[in-house]
Amino acid sequence: MTLPLSLYVHLPWCVRKCPYCDFNSHTAGAAVDKQRYVAALIDDLGREAARAGDRVVETVFLGGGTPSLFSSGEIGNLLDAAARCLNLSEGAEITMEANPGTLERDRLAGYRAAGINRLSLGAQSFNNGSLERLGRIHGADEIENALHDAMEAGFDSINVDLMYALPGQSPGMAMEDLERAIEFSPQHISWYQLTLEPNTVFHAEPPVGLPDEEIIAAIEEQGYELLAAAGFRRYETSAFATAGHRCRHNLNYWQFGDYLAAGAGAHGKLTDDSGFVRRYRKPAHPLSYMKAIESGLLDDCMQRLSPPDIAFEYMLNALRLTDGFSRTGFCECTGLPWSSVATGVARAVSLGLLSTGAHRTGGGGTFRPTERGRRFLNDLQGLFLPAATKPEGKPAGRNGAQAARRAAVEANRCD
Q1: Which class in CATH covers the domain with range 5-253?
Q2: How many Å apart are CA 154 and CA 91, to the nearest integer?
Q3: pLDDT tens digit sequence for 122-159
């Protein structure tokens, strides 16, 4: 089975590092040489093209950091290079993340003209007090201006990122954030809980006033009802879309597709004709990455995954999806026998974490997380860990997903 193929491009700089962020991002300054970095990315895309061969790239995602720190001309050069190097699908979904505090109306039109057809706006909240506590560089007015300008620039596929369980946030405040986002009729909303990730400022010094589990549960219950009433279907732990606007790029991750990686700290995954799955990553620091590209001595830290790791990583992602997975799909995507996960699946069903159903094509059973399984996602994912140690459960979906994801990264870390 040939898996779908995507491309992830990492643009690593931000105006300021947010205290909750654990992504590979670096504070931008006067010394940042964006032209040099774009040149390195273009060379890197040539390397990735050799890996891709004639496979069709279905989606491209420009993430960060803050990609909107780069000009529309620089973004255009990147996308032109991708089109030259790769077999890019004519209908490819091309997403760019953007910060409302770095967007200008002219730039938005330029990004659209350069080929970006899906914009992901990092709003996080419409409450200025919450934004200040989160360390964001923008205010609510800038979010609204960015949304207006994006629509005027011709974007008809817009995602709004929002957080909940913020310091001092009540259920009413969280609903106000969702309501204000919905007023702009975006096609997609990513709504996820603030978590205190290791190696972040918030982890070292937790903010005062974080809601307790009872308040978080109330926020989630009210939020899911509000989003459903507005026409947003929850298709993943923290992703909600109107009809026809699921994020194809992220779905490829969650459905265990393959993806190329360009940029500092970017991770890739490829499955060869023999069914072997390999992961690789680029040097994390932008300067180290550029020097490695320019010297021709780039070490991608390629690693072949073991069958237990493959099974776990498939389940790690598939269990985030509200539609779940099928027995046939697991076997086709991983090349592994169903016995690799059968015990864990049976245990999850017996615990009420998974429900079963008939596959629409008759090709085996389907399994999807129950409401209990979504609430205790960490416990559910932990049933498939290849190691004996299982993560402790938390009744907050994104917490569990992140904890299990971190376990997978540690298990497959390159030296």
Answers
A1: alpha beta
A2: 17
A3: 999 999 999 999 999 999 999 999 999 999 999 999 99
